[in-house]
Structures are given as structure tokens and as C-alpha cells.
Amino acid sequence: MKKIAVIPIDNRPICYDLIKDILAMDKNIQLFLPKLSSLGGLIKNSNVDEIFDFIEELDEIDYLIVSLDTIAYGGLVSSRRCSDSFDEIKNRIEKFKKIIQKKAKKILAFSSIMRISNNNINEEEKEYWAQWGKRIFDWSFYLHKTELEKSYNCVHNIIPKDILEDYLNTRKRNFEINKLYLSWAQEGFFDTLIFSKDDCAQYGLNVKEANELAQIIKTKEIKNAKIKTGADEIPLALIARVLNAQAKIKINPIFLEENSIDLISKYEDVSIKNCVLGQLELANCLIDIENYDLNLIINNFKNEQGDLVLGDIINSTDKEINFMQKPCFIADVNNANGADKKLIRQLFNQKLNNFYGYCGYNTSANTLGCVILSAIVKYLSLKNNSYNDFAFKKLQFVRFLDDWAYQAISRKYIRESAPEFKKALDEKTAELNENAQIISEFLNYYPKEVKYSLPWDRSFEIRIEIID
Known about the structure:
Blueprint lengths: L1 E6 L9 H7 L5 E4 L15 H10 L3 E7 H6 L4 H4 L4 H15 L3 E10 L15 H21 L11 H27 L4 E6 L7 H15 L5 E5 L4 H10 L6 E6 L16 H11 L3 E2 L6 E6 L6 E2 L20 E5 L2 E2 L4 H8 L6 E5 L4 H20 L5 H28 L4 H23 L5 E5 L9 E5 L1
Parallel strand pairs: 1-2, 1-3, 3-4, 4-5, 5-6, 7-8, 7-9, 9-11, 10-12, 11-13
Antiparallel strand pairs: 14-15
Helix pairs in contact: 7-8, 9-12, 10-12, 13-14
């Protein structure tokens, strides 16, 4: 029995429920999570004292997977808003270090490099982002770009001095905390330390910080520290890393658009090829196109990734695919923020055989981290006679219902009904239930009841509660 404790980024279903749903497939994994109420949300910070109590009450565990942002700042969103000083945060994380050393055999941790969102939406940022967010992004982007190219910065800065100073002070504080984590990694405190680049672009102060951290890692030869594009999927990738440490499952990546593998996904700064290879490497998978254990089918984009939220482009594959001929799992990244509806129709018209999972949520890295862990858990649990097929079907039911039925079909109406999100969700419940029936017939899985809610009172994420 493997004992794994996870301290998530926040209370979103994709950060909390998903971990439970995936690991439930293996009867030989015992999962420990803090109470959902202890974790932060969009406007509420995590209760760090309750999380410390959760750690103190643990018996010795094999692995702790921890979001350091949760401990340091109260969550991912709070890491951009939190006004605590460097010393206050340092004292908090050092208390965590002292407590956890007695509890976990191996500690795998991740911390975000503070993002710079390219919009004037302050939902997850400080108040001034509503007016100055896009300006800050542009200033940061061209400042870094011109430094690298040694060219003239054509962007005239009109951001008020006090706002820019506050923003830069927050960045500097978080960056210094990340450098402190690197010193812990060098001491050997972490088995693995990941710095995640969330909502990235080609240039920016966040990219510059990532490069500086990478240089420290290289210069000091800190082999247990890495930098990865992504955020929400990092804990999933770290769980995959420990579960797959010995087996090292061999994966054959199959890109549906072979000529487009060097294109970069939205919200990321690496090619889709490197995103796939990086996620597989982090999960301790081996690439083998001949003697493979599983095929990874990547529904990548031909020209530019679509975005189901913004509606810029809506992509749909023109490939005909036989999914079930050989063992496979599917990363649907043709569009950001939801499924390719034509791909789903093809999949649902085929018999469920040799199927190791599907995902199509949010960014390419998010999708890959989710589906790689799902496939690894199913493959290893089958091999070890600890597989729970009911849990696999429940997991896939939620993924199809979220990524396809909600994100790709119902969400647009709900998003455009702002701020009456709950009312709009009620109006779309019948449509969701109709599509849930289609999913049930494909999976041969029929829950007694399905409940829907919007945990952050916005359209971005939905909580799907299954009653069996």
C-alpha cells in the first residue's frame, strides 16, 4: 500500500476532486488530503494553520506532494495578491519545513513563477489589474524582449509609479522566496522541486525570472529542481513521477498533425512537441515508438490553437482515427479550454476497448498532466491486480462531462449570462443531463444522480458531483 499525501493549490475541482478520482483507480494507493474547507478559493485564502494540523496528524507517509504557494501565500491566486512581507512568509515556510521533515519519506514540491496575465481582468489579480493589467503585460514583455535583443524599447510606460512599484515589489518577494526553495533543494530537502510557468508568453519578467532560476540550477548543479510550463497539472505530474519511478512505462506519442508539432499553444511558451515530451519526462515515462506499452494520441492543432473561452478560433480535426485498435490514451489539445467536438463524436462511435483515458481541459500542459497520470494509474493497477474499473469509468464520465458537455457546449451560454451564472447553469442543466446520457452509454456507467455547481461563482470551472 502506497501512502500519498497531497496539499493542493486551492479548492477547485480540478485541483482537489480530480486527484481523488484518478487515484481511486488503484486499490493499493491510500490518499490523504486536507479538508476541502481548509483550502483557499478565488477570494478566500487557505487556512494554513489547519493544513499544519493536517500534516501533524499524519502517520508516516511515503510521499508528500505539496503546493508551496498554498503554504507560503494561502494559494495560487493569493500568491499574486498577498501583502505579507518576505520575513512573514519565510517564517511560515520554515515552520512547514520543520513539521514535514518528520512525516514524509520523500517530498515533491512545486511553486509558481508569478504570472503576468495579458488582459485587464482583475478576478485573480490585485485591484489595479482592471485598469493596468494589459499595460503591465506589454511593459514587461517589451522590456524583456529589448533586453535580449539589445534593441530600442518602443513601449512608452504610462503606468502610475505607485502601481508599478507595488507590482515589482510583489514579484521580487516571490522571486526571493523561490530562490530560498532552491537552497532547500540543494540541501536535499526536496526529492523534486518544480517551478511552474503559469499562463506564459515568449517574453516577460516571469520568463526572465525562469531563466535566472534555470541559470542557478545549472551553475549549482541542483539536479532535483526543474522549470516547467503549466500550473494546475504539476501535482498530477509529480504523483505520476513517483508511481512510475520503477516501471518507467514506454509511451509512443502520435501527433495527429505531424507537420505542426513546433507550434506553440496558447498560454504557453514552448512548442506542443516540447510540452508533450516535457510532461512525459516529468512523469518518468520513456519514449519508444516501437516497443511501447501505450500510445499517446495528441489531437494537436494545424495552424493555431483554438480557444473555446475567447472564441477566437474553434478547431475541429479532419482526421479519421481508430482509437481502440491498440492501447491508447488521448490528449485533446486542438483547442484550449475544452474538447474538439468532432473528435468526441468519433470516439463515442467506437467500442470501449484498450482505452486508458481522455482529457481536454484548459491548457495543453493541463490536459497532458491529467491524462498521463490517468493512463499510468490504470496501466500499473492492471499490472498489479489492484485496478478499479468502476473508478476509471467515473473518472472518465466526469472528464467527458466537464471537457466536452460543459466546456465545449454549455459554457458559452453561461459565460455570456454574467453575472447570473447560477441561474444560467440551472437553465443548462437539462442539456448537460442529455449529454451525460450519451457519455453513460459510451462508458456503460450510469450514476444515480449528477449535481452541478460553480464553486468560484464564475463560468470557468464546474464541480460535478456524482451520486452512485
